[in-house]
Structure formats: C-alpha cells, structure tokens
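Rotation project, supervised by the postdoc (A.L.). Task for the rotation student: set up a whole-complex structure prediction and record inputs and outputs verbatim in this book. Inputs entered:
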Amino acid sequence: MSKVVRTIATTALVMLAFAAADVARGQVADAVRQAEQQRIDAVAKAVKPAIAIFSADGNGGGSGVVISPDGYALTNFHVVQPVGDYMQCGMADGRLYDAVLVSIDPTGDVALIKLFGRDDFPIAEMANSDDVQAGDWCFAVGNPFLLATNFEPTVTYGIVSGVHRYQEPAGTILEYTDCIQTDAAINPGNSGGPLFNAAGQLIGINGRGSFEKRGRVNVGLGYAISINQIKHFMGYLHSGRIVDHATLGATVDDDEEGRVVVSNILESSDAYRRGLRYSDEVVAFAGRTVDSPNAFKNVLGIYPKGWRVPLSFLRDGTRHDIHVRLTGVHAREELLAKTQQAPAEEAPPKRRPDKEDQPDQPDDEQPPANPHGEPAKVPDELRQYIQHRSGFANYYFNELNRTRVWNAFHDTAGDFAVLRGDWILSKGEEFTITLGDETSAIKTATTTISLDREKDLSEQLEPQGSGGMLAALHVWRRMLVEGPAAFGDVVYVGTAPLVGHAGLHDVLLGTYDVVEANFYFDPASGELRAVEMAPDPDADPCEIFLTDYREVAGTKVPHRMIVRHGDNVFLELEIESIQLSKSDKPEA
Amino acid sequence: MIRQRCRLQLVVVLLFCLGLHENTLQAAQSFAGTIDSVQPRMVKIYGAGGVRGLEPYQSGFLISADGHVLTAWSYVLDTETITIVLDDGRRFAAELLGADPRIEIAVLKIDAAELPFFDLNEAVDLNAGSRVLAFSNVFAVAAGNESVSVLHGSVAANTKLSARRGAYATTYHGLAYVLDAMTNNPGAAGGALTDRRGQLAGLLGKELRNSLDNTWLNYAIPIPEIRSSIDEILAGNSRPISSEPDRRRPIESVTLASLGIVLVPNVVAKTPPYVDRVLPDTPAAEAGILPDDLILFVNDRLVNSSKILRDELLYIDRIDEVRLVVQRQQQLIEVSLFAE
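Outputs recorded:
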C-alpha cells in the first residue's frame, strides 16, 4: 500500500516540478524559447544577403539575393526585364549598391546581376532544395509593394504547401517547373527574392503566385524556383548570355494504364539517335523516377540546353539506359525576339481576372510607358561592365569568363602560341597524325587521309565512322595555337557535365569554318578534358577525350585520346611520340 | 499486482511529461510527417464547370475504407460523370450518394476497398487559437498522383456564419471555424481542415465574398455540425425512393399539376427542377412557391433533376403531406403542402 502512496507522491512531485519550471520561466518552456531563438537567428542571418532592386529611373523593381562575396545576386527575369542593364540595390545594412545585369534565363524566369562596391557581401547559404518537404517551415524575404524605403526587407513566414509543382507558362514564356509552393505571403515586389528554410538556408527564388479575382495580392499560393534548378544553370548564368532551357525532341503522355510513354519524337533528335522511339515507356530521367507527364516536364525544366542527362526507358519489358543531349527549346532568333519584346507590349493588362497564374509584377511596378525613352544614366565607373552584343544580356561577362577559363588552361598546359609549325603525333609504324595550320593528315600502314582545304570541314568526316576525328584534331590544334581570341568566334557557354567525369566543366564553344566545337575544361585544374566537334547540329558529334597529359616542348599535351562517336568508342589512341614544332615560316 | 499498477502509473506520468515536452518542441518542427499521414486520405474531384469562371474541380476526402468521399455540395457535382483521383493517382468514376444542400455537403462513392480514411468518430473540436492545416486541391495545382496543397493557419473564431448574413452571401448559416489563412480559394471547397497533428476537424467551405467591401472570408464547417446529415446520406435516407427497386407506389400519387407547379421544360438529361410558373389558387401558390425557385428536396430526399422529382412524386400518396425545400437565391425555404 505504501508503494502506491509513494508512487502517487512521486507522480505529483514530477508534475509539480514541471509546472514549477514553467512558472519559473514565465510559463514558457525552454523548447519554445529555443524554437523562437532559432527562428530569430535564421531570420537575422537570412535578411543580410537580401536585396531590394530599384530601376535607376525609379520605376520598377523587385527583390533579389546575393550569392557570392563579390556581389553576384539572383533575381527574376521579369524583374530585370523592365529595369535594363543598370540598377540599384538596397541591402539591410541601409546602403545602396550599383549593379549591372549579367545574364538572363527568360524561360526559367531567372536573372543574375552583379553588385559593386564590396568584395565581402553577405551571402545566402544554399540548401539542397530536393530535401524540402510539404509542411516544412519557410520564409520569404523581400520588398513587397516596394515598402522598404530604408531597404530593410520584409519577412513573411509560412509553410511549404507542395513540392515538385509544375506551372504552365503564363503570359509570356515564363515556365515554372519543379517549383516550391508556399503559403508564406508572396506579393508584388517579392519577385526575385529568396525563399529560405527554417534554418535560413536558400531553397528558392520567389517569382509567381496564383492570383485570381481577388486582385494582385497573395491568396496563399506562392511559387519559388527551386535553388537546385538554379544550381544547374549557375555556370550558364555567369556567361552573360541569354540562356535557354531544353527539350528532349520528344514529348510524353500518360496512356490508359497510367504509363508515361513517348507520344511524339523528332527523328533529328539526339534521343532518337540514342534509340528512343514512339510508345517507349519513360521510367527515369536525370536520375529521377518518372511516373507522370508532369514529373517528366519537371525534370526537363531544370536542365539547360546542351546538357547530357541519363534517361531510362522500357520497351517490351527490357530496360534501356541511355544518355541524351538536350537541345534548346527556342531557336536563337525566337529566344531573342521573345526576350527583346518591349516589356510594355508584353506586360499583361492591368487586371486579368480569369488568368490564374501570373508573374507577380504588380501594377505599380509596371515599367514606364515608353521603355525606349531616355535610358537611365549609367555611372561612368560602371560603363566598362556593360557590353551589348546580339544574343547576350551583357557580353562583358562572357569575355570575362572566356578569359578566365583560357588563362587557367594556359597556366596549367603552357603557351602553344609559339608552336605554329606542324604537330606530329605518332606511334611507331602504326599511325602518324600531322596537324598543321593549313591542313592535317592521318597516315597508317595502309592509307593516308588528309583534309582538303577547298572543302568545308563538315564534309570531311574521315576516318569513316569517327564522325570527323581528323577535323576535330585539326580544330583542337587551332584552338591551342590561336587561343579563343583568334580561333574564330568563341563563346563561354557555362558549365555542363561531361560523360565519364564527375562534376561540371567549363565549356567554350568555338565556331570555325562551318563547324562548331565544344571544349570542356576542368574548372579545378584548368585542364582541357574533351573536344566535341559537331559538323551538323542534327548529327552526332565526334568526341575526343584527352588524358595522360605529359610535357612536350614546355607545354603539357595529352598522350591518350579516346575518340567516341554516337554510342561507340571509335578508337583509343595511345600516342608514343609528340613533336610540336615552332613556326617554320618567318614572322610576319 | 499493486506494484505493476504503480509502474504503469509512473510510465503513464512519464509519457505524459514527455508528451508535453514533445508538444512544445513541435512549435518549431516541420509538419512533413503529419502531412504525409493525411495526404493518402485526400482526393481530387473533377466534374461540371469550366465556363464563366466556374472551376470544374474541387476537393474531398475519404471517410470510409470502401470509398465514401465527403465533399462540398456544388455545381461541380451536377453532372453524370464525376471523376475522383486518389492521392496515389488512381482514377475512379464516382457516384453521388446523396447531398444536403442546406449545409452544402455531399457524399460520393467510388468502387474501391481498403483505402485510408478519416474516421468521423475521431474528429476533434477546435477552439479559437488552435493551429490548423488546410488540405485541398486549390487552383487544381496538383494533378494525378501529386499531393494536394497544404496551407497553415489558426482558428480565428468559432462562430455562426449567419452573423454576417447580408454582407456574405452563403447558404450555410451554422457554426463555422473562421480561419486566418486563405483556405477558401477556387477548388478548395470540400478539402479537409485538421489540427496540427492531422486529426480531422472540419470540411473547407466555399469561397465567401463580402459584397459590400469585396473582402473574403475563409471558413470550415466543424464535423459535428454535419455529422448527422452524413449519417443520413450513408444510411440511404437522402436518396430518392424512386431509386429503390422494390418500393411500392400508391394507387393515386401526387402530381405537379395537383400541386399547381409548372417546371421549366425538361430539355437536357439532368434539367434542374426550376419552377417556371405557379398556377393561381393552388396549394403551391398558397404555400408561397415562386417562379425560379429551385426544388432541392421532396420529403427530405434529394431531387437533382426534373425527372427524379416527377418520379419521386409517384411514391407519395395524394392524401399525404408533401414537404419541399426550395432554394431562392441564397435562401433555403421549407414549405409543406397537400395536393388538391
């Protein structure tokens, strides 16, 4: 019996202790205080890199977030479109910084800008947005209704309402794929601003809401572009280009059994060349399971044009795993036209009650009636950072990165500019490859093939089955000797994966004669890893993977080359001897 | 024995204390686990609409393992083909089992088994200040096997909607949870309101706009308010008698003419039973039936077409009372009349 009493007493004591503890803390438990403090800390950390973007003429603006100490910042395309090349950005520290446009991704509604004035900007820490789940706490930071004249951002708290959402293109070409839906208030002016998780890590860029008959204000459904999508585009976004999204060259639909099957495919597409056919069931794409057409569109929307991604499909019960190269959604002219259309013409009417989703650019953020009126005055010290060129948002940044990549290669591989004579690559009697300024040739025990300079390079795809190995090597030597400035037209594309290598590689795209060639550089070492020469955009390129770099004539050159074409390895070249001769011609 | 009981008590107390501790921690935690447990019970409903800003979709949730779905009574259900898509993406043709337009609920049935569902017996009551989650396919953001949207908020008030009659046009006048979250958007009606642990508390109502100041009210109907009506529908008491094969007809039945009601011409398969004319000096005229009234119920049984109404009258003896519920704009009016 006494034990019962003792137990009851203990029980009472324990309960009392809890109650007393609560009273002592003013009725608030430690866990609640900790949660509150965590939230305060997360907000304090997250507001620092947030920016309020203002157009120089005072019309228009939005939000953004700084992602590098030297001032690169993310925002929406639809925020910068009416603002132009030059803008001003207010930060939580109360200061106003000058910024210029770097790149735009009109389809994904993303833009990169660069702020000036510091090299120690506070930056947002990026999360893995694939870890985000419906029900997670999150908060938006930005400048809704352009409220913050002191640049102190507004914070709106909410939960994630849904993930991997697909939102059809609205109004213009903005398509939100694989986006994060939140009930945190996203209002006009929040556009381009960051969405953070509860720890204050960046998970997305806010840019769109479901607006309907209630006017252009939040109705509990906002959408953020996932930061993982933007990570894929990050290299491209530094290129100063107008960046395009991708298509597979095939469309999918769900059949009666709910399988996702190919409903249409272009015979000119890489997917077709890799074996994908009408009515094949797509089961995985870029490492993700595909169980609905939306799931497929979600994957497609987060990769840039030109990337190669794995795709798995079922045909007659057999699984096929292929790598497909994604082509651009838009033709170059089409993308330019859509991007360059005057925002005033493109902007939706002031009220469109029956339109469900629109970029949240509010009425009071509308660009001035005449966007071609007097341009905002760019400060003199910023003029050097703005260069116009067709197809580019700001060519300055393309040249900057082209130079960066080339200098890194130069630093590791040496200077080939003086080695303008013939390059002779050989292995005993087996083969001798001679690469020169004018022509190049391959000689084996039985045959000799040379390039005919009277004909286009794209017509000389010898040796047979290689897709143009000799022409690719010729182009490779030309790039090394001439450098990107003199090779032909050379553009920094961005970063892309390279089959057989981990991580992303810097890509330079060179156009010479009538062929295009991609040069893949390892960003860590600066080494040139591969050359891909495409004689025709609708044909498989010749790919030459370059390894086993050794010293020759004060430079480093690859002694092993793997030549691939389509699905096959055409040749593995083990080179015993490389001679790089200096120009035999007198200097001009 | 006693010792065992003591231990049990201690364990209970400790669990209680741990529980308290856990609750406070939840203040900061993600709702992801809760949401995962609720989502399999949510459904997307597709039906009539698609014109003049009437969205052809709404939300619902399973209330039995055999495929009973609770949703809001609306024009979306006014069609022969109602489609229900489960959280796992499976599609079903749904049958309208019954409805109670007075409280704007309907129960649908799909042919399926062993489904996860909300047990109405376990529905919880909420107070003002309770934190809630609202699950719905608002704006049809989710399709196929995509999970419906979840919004969070609190109960702002536990009150009667009739308090604002006049300003807010609504048929439902009963108790409602008024919410501080924007839960009642297009397509959200019929969604589930749960507490923060995912326990069912209410049914999300329709969009409700104040015609005077163009503000919008978000509300959910508490389950206890609609429970008896759901049970009536499940018991088959809301279905037309004419749908029951072995029911006997009286020798002399009530007819529309004997009531003095002329309906609008029966032109389509499911012409709604709108009153076209009321003949003078007839029971209908005396009872105050007016042209354009929509007849919803005959003797508590739902009649959602002219044909069903005519069939239903065949089962009422000419000497018996006829109770009608008619909708006149946003008002529901009950009348009782006897045939001539």
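Student's summary: The longest helix of chain B spans residues 2-26.
Supervisor addendum: Chain B touches chain A through 45 residues (CB under 8 Å).
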